[in-house]
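A brief tutorial aside. Many learners find it easier to grasp structure tokens once they have seen a single protein encoded end to end. The record that follows does exactly this for Dynein heavy chain 6, axonemal. Read the sequence first, then the structure, and try to relate runs of similar tokens to stretches of the chain.
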Amino acid sequence: MRESNIEEIPITFAWKWSGKPLRKRILVKNTEDLETFRILLAAFHRQVKTLNKIVAVQPLGILYLRCERFKENTLPSPKDLLVVIENTLPRIGRAKIDALAMEAQDMQTFLEIEPRTTENYVEYLMFLENATTKVDQMELAMDYTKELYDIIEEFKVPCGAEDISNYSGFSVTLSSLRTYVEMKVSDKLKIISKFNDQINKDISSLIQEVGSIKDEATQPWLIDIESNLEEAKKMLDTYVTQLEDCQKRAAEYRAHQRAFKLEVTRFDMLDEVMSDVKLRQLLWESVGEWDKIVEQWTAVEFSTLVPEDMGAITAKQVKNIHQFEKGLPPNLIVPRFKENVEAMRDKVGTPAFTVYCLVIVFSSTVFYPNNLYSSIHQLPVITNLRNPALKQRHWIKVENTLNHKFIPDEVITLKLLEDVGVFLFPAELQEISGQASSEAGLETLLKKPLVSFFRTCTGRANQPLYCLDRSTVHVVEAVRDECTSIHSAKENSASIGSLKAKGKASTRIHLEFRLDRCMRRRWKTLEFVVLPHRDMKDVYILGGVEEIQQTVDESNINMNTIASSRHVGPIKPRVDEWIKQLDLFSTTLDVWLSCQQSWLYLESIFSAPDIQRQLPTEAKMFLIVDKSFKEIMRRTAKMPLAMQACTAPGVLETFNNNLDLLDQIMKCLEAYLESKRVIFPRFYFLSNDELLEILAQTRNPHAVQPHLRKCFDAIARLEFGSHFLVEEETFDEETQGEEEQEEEEYIKKKEEEDQKDEEKEMPLMLLTLDIIAMVSPEGESVNLGKGLRARGNVEDWLGKVEDSMFGSLRRRMHMAMKDHRRRSRKKWILSHPSQIVLTVSQIMWCSKVHAIFNLPTDQEKQDEMVEFENKNFDDLNKLAAMVRGDLEKLQRMVLCSLITVDVHARDIVTELVREKVTSESVTCRLITVRLAINCSVRGWGLCQLGDGPTKPPLKLLAGYGRAYDSLQEGLGRRDNFEWLRQLRYYWDEEHNTCVARMSSATYIYGYEYLGASGKLVITPLTDKCYLCLMGALQLDLGGAPAGPAGTGKTETTKDLAKALAIQCVVFNCSEGLDYKMMGRFFSGLAQSGAWCCFDEFNRIDIEVLSVIAQQLITIRNAKAAKMQRFMFEGREIKLVQTCAAFITMNPGYAGRTELPDNLKALFRPISMMVPDYALIAEVILYSEGFESSKVLANKMVQMYKLCSEQLSQQDHYDFGMRSACKADSVPADQGSNPIHSIKAT
């Protein structure tokens, strides 16, 4: 609780009884809890009222009870307490209002100040981000103040007029502040744009500053050999400090740009300059340090020099020199520095002993001391002279070699040795040092165990034996034993056989050493990476095992190499044991990882109580696996050694048993999911994970909301019913005693809870299980009727939602048709859902055309059709004007879709007028005459093969010709197929449903909810595709649009499904699809009655396509037989006749498969070419409110065509149909009024 909310209000009850005062003190510390004040005021008012009702004298039999003194002494107490509270409440309200007014004034003042610098902009924008939240908090505080003043008014607490005025006026102030804040928030993009300009100015200034530093730092004197070292270092330190400040500012600028989602600037120049300056700084520091260290080395006593340290320092400087040569311009400092360092490196050097060299060299040194260093590179002079094996006799040889006698008390330094020419005899000194080492080795072998020698050679002479690891001791002891045996063989006989024994022994020692180094040492410390799982206590999983897998592979290679050696005989049992261990480890690790993968998948599933309730047997089985797996992982977390964990007894058997149980659980889970999909077939289009996520929350219908789009294309969420719970407290004077007791208990509770802050309870809104409406992604809401509840299993009530969706849309469509005759078209459009508006509008348009066709004379039909065409133009202009008006987003989307449909309807009427079509059935009579003529001619042609005449009778041909000519003359150029080939909508009064017709195909409207999604522009190519697909559906076939990318194959198929209100699922095919997955998908299609469009269908493997052909043939045969249920993939499923499959293909691409003939026969092909961009652009512009859309569309298409031909062919240039459509879809609203600017252009 904040300190500002704490205030102590002393309230004292005082009265006297028998002359003794009795007092009770209460502290009200939480002034935010206004309910306490309400209770106290009510209590004290009730006490005053009760005391006032006490009579002065009360007769009690023969006695009179006088209450005047009691009343006089008691009544002031509650009155005084009322005065205290009545003084306190206005003071609290005044303080609150003053604080809020001050805060509002500060916010207003801050927001009115125009930022100037980058820091001002950052502070301003950060304040603006929190401004709305602050205003919300102020409104909450205002709600508290309102309740406080309500209490003041309720209990008639005296309050100053000024306080009341301030309280009343602050509401207006707060409203004005919110409006101002919202205005500033709406201008945030402009402020960010100004901030971007300001920060770019600062960045430019920073870059200029870095450039000036670069010019100063690259002055030649800073890398001149004649320059003063201290001055150069001081100047470079100054530059580094300046650049670090620049880097700090650059980091701040980048952070600001990331925070406000601006393009982050890269300061490459700053990094380059900093790197260059630091490199120059490092040069002078290295030169100075090297001079000091060389001076120190030459001055100290030679016996104190450590060649390893000297070598490390020298190597560091060599590395620095390499950087100087690469990063600095040519100068004289680096070559001289390099010359000095390399000279010292040649003098010092670094020892190169290894255990392997010791073993091999030592085995030959027993007989040939001169070969000790034959396999090791020559060591420089300082390392040779610092050999700890050098004795007095060796130093005498050194003196003879140098021709110089060292004085006993003379301090030998590196400078002294250099003066006497010690570096002129490297080979001689190396020979003396090697001889000393050989002699020391022989002495060590004769006097001490070999372990001491090994310690000396490895630099661990002072370590006891137990400090060496077991593998090292093992190798040393093996070397000692072998050397002893070889030495005995040398003393007994110098035969060739002894020498061969020595060679074999050396090889075996090498194998044992390799076995020890490659296996024991590596696996002794190799551990699993154990990670906690989901922040759960004592639950772990294995992390990455890449390092362990690599080690296993390397160990297997080493073991195979050792096992294939002919000298492996003595150690073969150990090698076989290691191979067996590695085999067991690999098997256990594979099973472990498989078990962990399945456990991770199922753990999240069976952790849901609903899944446990619905699958009790599988839950118990998983509980067994879960307990076992967690126990093994807990042991592994405590002792994560990989080899020990995987080869422990019983681990492999446990994991195998767990894996068997997990496989059984997975099969049961698949069967369980299949049972759910059969009940609600739309679940077939969801993955197992998505379906399990839904089923895991079956008790909470509201948790299914995020997954609705996967089952219904246009239902974003369902709207549930709700009601409010309000708890009210009342005071009743009749229960006065009980209320006083409750007050005392309440006050006591306040004291015992240590003044805890209790928030005021707000009315709670509870969502019920009643489903009221479905809401589209665009925000359109459609009621689903009454009596629909989300109760029971999720698949059951989702099926009811589907049925209610169909029924509700059918009722709404019937109501809209009746409403269309009563209302004006403008009001009617905005009063119904988008799908209903589009469909009913097309039904009414079609009925109007048929009404014209039913007129008695052709002239009346033509005149009425021309009038109807003009009406279509007027209606479209009115709709375009409505689009330009002030509309909500949803209303604008409905109008755009309606205009798209009406434009196509207008074009159809225009074509009917141009072709003078007056009937829908004359074409059939014309075709009949043509067919009769053709058949007659063919018949006479066949007769000529026999005895008949060679030509048909002229009278017959003349009769048919006159009939045909007269019919054609009567019709003129009429082609009634122009009307029949259109997609038309009718309302079937007999079945009370909507029917779509196209040519000879008839399709019942599906009533799938479509929301307010956009409508595809209908071009001549779209009409042809629709006609082909509708004909295919009439024959229980599928459609196969083929063509290049971007021609609208998939979108046209989806739009036809929208036109018929059928669910259409788009499935992207790939090479990895198998027949089982496709069979499950086809099963879902057959049971749900949906359509599916398989994109890139010819990417599937030819073997899978053959099976798919049989699956589709099975479904088609069942549809042709009008079956309700049929056998599919070995089980009986239901069949919904509306199901259909469509495929799209890009022919000629690499990796595409040729479809089998039996599969080709199931799909009706159609070629899709480049669409009419001009028509598409025209319709889109018209739907957005541009009345002169045809001219604008032509200009835009030409512009994009020129851009695509003339401009660069880079990826970020896109002048295709998608880009053009996006540019076209700019609403011509009245605010921006882009029409005038386009016309002017």
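Self-check: The mean pLDDT is 77. If you spotted this yourself, you are ready for the next section.
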